[in-house]
Amino acid sequence: MKWQDYLQCTLVLSILVTACKKLPEKKDYLSQNANFNRKEIYEPVLGRTMLELTQFSADGSTFPMVFSIENARDLRSGKPAAELFQAVKVQEWQRDYTGLEKSLSEIEAKRVWVNAPFLEIRKGSGDFIFRAAPSSLIKTYPDTGYAFDVKIVNKGNERILKDFRLRPLKEIPYEPYEYDTYTRQRKIETRQPASGPVYRVPYTIHPSFLQKMHYTKDSLFTDTLVSVYFNRASETGHTLTFRFLDENRNAINPAMFNNTKWDQLLHGFNRRQTDSTVVYDVAYPIPLTGLKTAYAASGKAFCTFGYSRKGYGGVREDASFGLNFAIYEPGDWSITFYFRRNPIFNDD
Amino acid sequence: MKLYLQVLWLFLFSTQLVLAQDKLIAVKGRVVAATDHTPLPGVSVFLQVAGSKPKAIGITDGQGEFNIRVAPDAKLELRFISFEPMIIAVNNRAAITVSLKPSATSLKESVVVGYQKRTRETVTGSVTRITAKDIQDVPVSNIEQLMQGRVAGLNISQTTGAPGFRGSASIRGLSQVMVKGGGNNAYLTPQSPLYVIDGVPVDANAGFEYGFQSNGPGTSPLSLIPPEDIESIDVMKDAEATSLYGSRGANGVIVITTRRGQSAVPIIRYAGNMFINFPPSLRNTIGGKAERDYRVNMIMNTLNEDEIHRISTNGFLSDSLNPFYNNSTNWQDIYYQVTYNQTHNVSVSGGDQKLNYKTNVNFYNERGVIKNTGFDRYSLNQNINFNPNPRLQVSGYLSAGLGKKLKGSGNGLTDVGAGSSISSSLYPGPSYFNNVGQFTGAMFRKNDTRTYDIRTYLNIMYEILPHLQLLTNTSYDYTADQEDTFIPALANSDQPGIYGYSGRKNNLYNRSAINYNNVFKGKHSIYAAVFSEATIAQVQNKVINQTNAPNDYYHGPLGMTTYYSGVSGIPVAGGFSEVHSVALAANISYDYDKKYVVNFNYRADGNSYSGIKERWAQSPSVGVRYNFNKENFLADKKWLDFGDIRFSYGVNLRPTTDIYASLGWYDVAGNYNGVTRVSPHLGLMPNPYLKPEEVEQFNYGFDMSIFNGRVGLTFDAYTKTVYNMLYTRPLATSTGFSSTYTNDASLYNYGYEVSVTFRPFKPTSKINWTINLNTAINRDVLLSLPGQATQMLSDDKTVMNRVGYGALSNYLYVTQGVYRTDDDVPVDPITGYRYRNGDNGFYHAGDVKFQDVNGNYVTDETDKQVSGTPVARITGGFSSYLTYKNFSLNFNGTVLFKRDLINNALSERMDNLRSPYDNGTLVNLNDLNYWTGNGDVAKYPDPYNYRSLTNSYRALQTLFQEDGSFIKINAITFGYTANRAWSSKYHMNALRVYTTVTNPFLFTGYSGPNPESVTELGRDRLDTYPISRTLSFGLNVEF
Questions:
Q1: Contacts of residue B862 in chain A, CB cutoff 8 Å?
Q2: Mind listing the pLDDT tens digit for each residue in B109-119?
Q3: Whole-prediction pTM value?
């Protein structure tokens, strides 16, 4: 070849090369502002399985992302906190709870026992799962608790969000609860009577609502006149007993509450009614899920009792009272309503 | 007007036939076409002069004959467009018959590049020509439709079938990725190429700045150009070819040249068409009792007391015996119609090399398949070219067009009659006042919509010294848009309404150049030019909206009162603007014996709309070409007609915004202490550093033609990078502004274009068959986004721009089928909830199954995934041109592959179906594979469960994303040309009759009506104006 040919070749090659462009890397977007909207100290209550919606704000970042917990440690000592990931035996749903199940076995068939760690992060969404671990395993308040980091990965990016705090609380077996969540001291009730000074008494549970209940011809019950007590007889059973006591702590026959829809009182089965108690076979926790059903709303079961009588002047009085509650741990539980005055069941 | 007529007379009849001949012998010649031996009128006859340019000495008349006096040994050169030039020696003959071969190779034809005519051999850029032959025979309201599928890399979509409206056109992929608007109305910034009509740049967009809410007539200037008057269309794709067109050429340039007079004997051509538009097949709706039963059943099946009670509160459901509701109206039938239309075109042309003229008169009348829509065109244009001596050329041009449009109730791209809100068949009630508003609005709205366009230029060239020419071209383009719409009281909540639009655009343009060209030693050709360009473009648009007019008979004007007037200007997007721009450009071309060609161009543009700190922008370009067939070792190869390789590089600029984007504006903001406050307009922050967008292109080309033009190939590979791409950048609220425009984004396109031509039969055969196939593959990659972001979402988070990927992606919920049974729905093991949409939309059997991307058992925004692109990756077309004796059969088509559409229309249609109480049409759903009962494997979810909160029929899911590939036959024409012997008996030069079917076939897997009539973002709207099938009968006569 002549030198001109070489020159030509070089020219053509150099032109071809100039047109080539280095294309940017194909990668996802992970915003520097992507973060958890809730990032205070997480304080899950032990003994319950719950989902903590972290409200991860992606700030336009590309999904799918993979979240993982890194460097979980005891805050004070800085040592790895292996107990957070130690498997505990818990129940998980296989099928959805609808509130329409007809028997205890039908409900139980929808759940399985699994071994899973106390703390887990949902890989795709960053929500935290806290499973029902006992406080014998996990350090609880007032211990400073744990700290951990969350790693977020999507295609081509990685970010670590540091120093999430975790300070679990001891079990609260039922709600409403008489003891303070943190100190476990008996809570104090402050009352302002219609006349007279403010007084403080140890906290007891009162009915969530109460209406048209008379203890004299012209005196209505106020909620302070009724106390509710939760009691667990054994930790392995699955029954719930309702008891009603009069001012002398004698049992009131449940049949006196003649307006009560006993079969729709709660999602329980196999009702056994005696002169002093009403017992159901139930599945714990109560309520089973946060679903709005005939028996529960907003994460609380509600039960309503009532009776009907002819009041003063021939007026029909449909008296009723009820309780919104939750029980988180299994057992043979009883709920006792203690009336500090004797309710009038007779017609006036 | 009077003056105008005078000018017309002058143009028509002031022919001059001055030919001074002083040579030795008289030669009588006849020129015929080699293929069918018909005479060719208008062939230029040149006398070859040693060492100089050939000298024009004559032109053939209507019978293809010429008479000249030349030296006995003279050599004549005959030139005619689309034919091979031929050189013949006179050899002392008194009579010569010459047959010219059609130019198979298209190499010698001249194209217009950078305002100068050049032979194709010396063009270094990528230019494709469409000739008049390709676009005849099909009556259309907009010539763009005729270019569809003709040029590799030019992607034209008929996004609407409304007469007089323009679809979309783009060259070589995406040039813009910014999406404005939202939902169905989301649109991409228009990226139309620049049209240059007879040397005058014309903005083909009309009203596009308003998106789908178009104001005024929205008639493109292209709709006012009669297709019959077009001589050729040159499509320029790469930067080198477009660089001299400057700032507006970055999206490619399309140069349209109209016909000129060529024959000494005046030629009168008539072309007429009668054509019939047929509505497309309409949807199969449910009517009358069936409709009522359908609605009532759907409600009863909910087993919900409240719902069932609602039946009795909705009269049209419960009161079936009442004649008020006892109807079964086929609404579609009322909207749609078969229409009979016509177009006529007469052109008179004549003249010789010294003076020639052409006048073309056109009338086009079309009524759309939806009532109360249509388009009429009246146009008159003429040009005159005067060369009093070889050194001076003067040409003038005047074109006047009037486009009248009927818009129905729609805005062009859409029309209610086309489907979106047709009423239930149970309506209307039996009284005048029980009308259905949207129907009355569409049918009885009175439209008087006019677009006047007057375009004129004067072009003077003077050769001041040998080889040195001065040239100036001044043009003025004035467009007036007017619309008066009257909405009768019934259609407008009992208040007659008036909409008035008045807009004007004018464009004054001048280009002045000094050209130098010379040939040294017979081999070194040099062409050099310097020119300046100046443009002033003004726009002024106004709108008035009034309601509460006195009655349906008085259509205004009404005075302004606060009671019935809502007077509004049009937002800054297009209401008023004035743009000044100046440019300086230089161009040098050199070729060595037409073998090596090199071109340098440089242009600097200063624009009033660019930021004050960045006024000037430069666009250099270079191109080289190597015609390897001129190498010695190939010169004697008979099989090779020509072959070349080309390379070009260039930068083009594109104005992107208006003056407000760089300067901002001030508002009067009320009073403070009795003093009027004037404050900066908040919202869009002005950016004084705003630059025009910069488009850099590399182009590699290869052309070859072998076996006497029987196989031709053109191949182009290119890269096209858009720098400084405009992007809206949101600002922190603390700035006081909400957003600003920046030049932060950039986009890269690369692709390949192939065009192949075959001629299976020999040129001497009686059968002449030409097949052309072309295709273009384009990929786009987004290089950067503002603020180093790697992705951005627009249109309510349904369109994603991602760096490193294709620039536009659909961002949708991923559908994975339909739940067969309740047990198929996954359950969150922690909460015990079923998979759900939002808080309460629990999925059940028959609901759609969305992919739970983030695994939280809730369908939410983060489950959306990038799932397809609305940008077509492969486009192309094909054409076949077959003649045998007097018969011809032509067809052409368009191909588009790999484009993802969203069938919003189906989603919307299902929404109607799922609203039992709403007054909408129910379309029969027998064509869908939907879920009917437990265990069903279906494609579409349960259409009856209208109370579900799962939103299973949402549009933005992959269920409705479909492949929009199609192969379309644009038109088939069958023609017959009468024997010349017969037609000349009636003193006709030529007579041709033909019949054409447009849009006869469409092959597609797409489930919607037409994958082409969708928005540029690939959304199929239910209210798209459908594309109709047309049958036309045409007649061409030449006297």
A1: 58, 63, 125
A2: 566 666 666 67
A3: 0.82
